[in-house]
Amino acid sequence: MRLPKALIALSLALASAAYDGPAASAAEDFFGPHASNHTNNWAVLVCSSRYWFNYRHMANALGMYRTVKRLGIPDSNIILMLADDAACNARNPYPGAVYANAGRGLDLYGDNIEVDYRGYEVTVEAFIRLLTGRVPPGTPRSKRLLTDDRSNVFVYLTGHGGNDFLKFQDNEEISAFDLADAVETMWQKKRYNELFLMVDSCQATSLYSKFYSPNILATASSQVGENSYSYERDADIGVFVIDSYTHFVLEFLEQMNKTSHATMQDLFSKYNFKQIKSNAGVRSDLFPRPLDATRLTDFFGGVAQAEVVDAALGLGDGGSTLSAPNVAQDTAWNEHHEEQEPAAEDEADPELRPEGFRMGSVVVGLAALAGLLGSAVWGV
Amino acid sequence: MKWLIPVCLFGAACAAAERFDERLVLTALPDGNVLGHWTFTTTLGHDLSHAQHYTLFPLGLGQTLNVHGASELHLALNAGQWDYKLWGSPPEPSVASGAELWTWIRASNTTQADERWVGLRNALAGVFCASLGSLDDQRTTTPALSFKPSVQLPLGKHQLRHATLPAEHVCTENLTPFIKLLPCKASAGLAALLNPHVLFSAPFHGLSVHYTHGVLKLAVQAVFTPPRQDWSLNTLLDRSIAAACTVASSSILSFVAAGTQLDPQPSTEVNGALQYDLASATFPFEVTVRHPVNTISSHRRTSPSVSLRRTMTGSAQYAGGLLVQLENARNETVRVSYLETLPWFVTLYLHTLEIRVNDDPRRRIDLLERLSYVPPRAPAPTTLEPILRLPPLSRVTMRFQLERAFMLYTQFPPDAQRGWDLPPAILTVLPASTSTHSERVYGKTLLADLPTPDFSMPYNVALMTLMLCGYWFSEVFRIITRKFVVEPA
């Protein structure tokens, strides 16, 4: 009879801890009523243009790569597709470097980069196979989108587009219908929880116009019939280095860090013709959550893994040291914790970082402790 | 199995047998450039098929090689042209621009070998962020003579697979995973000097991976142009070494530059090379190389005795020729095997083969000792591998006639106007006796210009045809359905 009693005690403790305790309300405040329930983040960043004069498209995708990496998505969860090699191109006066501003302030290629699909490998077929998971047998892990129904997927596309299509390699096109069907296949195969599409091309909004699957948020640089323009050129590189829309988004994201509470609405409401030089669009009719409750880090950032340390479970002698003060101070800890979060890490390895400790683990840890105590009292 | 037990009982001893050695040789070249050659050797002490408890050997690569049965593997990723005349024989023989992969696969039959080859190239593509997955049937060959195993292969049947990807770029995304295979990464030891920005600006640079029987050698070779005549590690490579890699059994930095003054003083001199042992160095480690006034110091490296030149002839897109010139600089007859790999869409006519010596108009087919030829069966390429005897101090010219295929619209790559990169020709100098090692010389990659259509034409044709069909249909429809009525005046 000892075991059922212990179980009852545990469930009672769980229930009381989860619904009544101060920790529970703190946790609820922290996550919010419209919090995303994803457990992992993926990013698919595609530059679909070949040739040196499309340097800016490479820089767009690499700028986005740097940002999502900075905000906590590890390289293993980023699929970077670059249709040409700008960094080691014979025409690049700065080999091994790609810059996205005229002063060449920040090298986007850096010392640590993993390009998963490059050159001729970047095709419409490869992209659709990647999304839908129908890759040829023997495809290495780095070339697969290993998402599940708890994955938030960020898809960024840049290249030359037109009404209802985006050109790949200046040779073939993906149509808005293909993309919508690929995403529907993803949904049916439970390959995403929420999907966020961002497109920087001419007539970019046409690319998301055919979507019909749930939980999709989409934004794009220009309306149908409208061009998307580049931002600036560098005299030494000799070509335009970034597009206006991506430059605007990256500038905005540059102010964010991993713990930012900024929402999609914050980004979208900043859209203006003067800076972007085109009318950027947003499509949110398929997206269930309010945009002002959808954090940018739900898509641009990585989920910090909950790491439950042994001490919190009260195993061994350390058990007595755990008590109520943790719970009483949780809100304060929470705020403190956010300030402490490192802003940028190159080698993001969430499993090794105890900073990823969230309120949820405190609740579970305390509940388990209460359960153990309960079973000890009643079981004897 | 009994003999295995004592081996596994002393697992600690097995682990201790694993060792990592690193070495960097900087050589002053006659043209003022500096050749840098890094080698990182991990010795496992036993074969990969034993227990996979590695301490220093990279686990990801070890498992990949083991699963796909690669008993010997050589991968090279290069950019630039190696100048054999000026720079001598390269320390790593594979210098063809682009990617080259060759491996001896343990397999009982060809089907199994092919399966393992597919798995291996895809896995390596994932490990090194390179398009090695494209080394498909169009590019894979099994040359009979040029690629012998460099050490005795383990027991069991083995098959060779060789493939090149001449248009492959080499960049930071290849160096990043390469560095991640090293026990100290780039944070300590000689790998700290691998600065991608400097490395990829070098006129020639290449990464290579060699695996032979429990020994993994990762190598980088590059020809750097020093900014001034007097240089230091920092001015040449824009990096200095902050700490020694403590797990390295040996960590040697060696300078081959006669008549130069080095600061600090090197610890030893071995065969004219001035060496520093990083284990006993002070950090941050920096060496300055000074040249006394009016001395040009360089180390003349031995060039291969045979050189190779290959050109495409003919101006037509459809037909053309291939001209191969082999020059023997030695005062004795040299036996060489020449390997020509041509994709299926470039057809070589063997009956047009002409061999001549110097300017002598006579045909010298007698110089051809043996010929191995695999005709193209699309998508498999042609493999032509003659063994030739080159007379002393002579230039032997081989000519072939070629025909280039008309390809289907969908078979063209996105940048079809650029042309196709043909795989490099490889010349192997066959050793006079079995004791000496054979030497390989790589030719330049060629660009084949194929008949290329105007890619907008199919759209024009389709639109025109549809327009005419539509017009014809509407006219017929109008005539047969219209009711003609005479209106009363």
From TrEMBL, chain A:
Active-site residues annotated for this sequence: H160, C202 (nucleophile)
GO molecular function: GPI-anchor transamidase activity
UniProt keyword list: GPI-anchor biosynthesis, Signal
Gene Ontology cellular component annotations, sorted alphabetically: GPI-anchor transamidase complex
Pathway note: Glycolipid biosynthesis; glycosylphosphatidylinositol-anchor biosynthesis
Signal peptide extent: 1-18
Domain of life (superkingdom): Eukaryota
Record family assignment: Belongs to the peptidase C13 family.
Record's protein name: GPI-anchor transamidase
TrEMBL record, chain B:
Gene Ontology BP, a term: attachment of GPI anchor to protein
A cellular component term, taken from the record's GO annotations: GPI-anchor transamidase complex
Key words of the record: Signal
Pfam families xref list: Gpi16
Span of the signal peptide: 1-17
Protein name: Gpi16 subunit, GPI transamidase component
Organism: Exidia glandulosa HHB12029
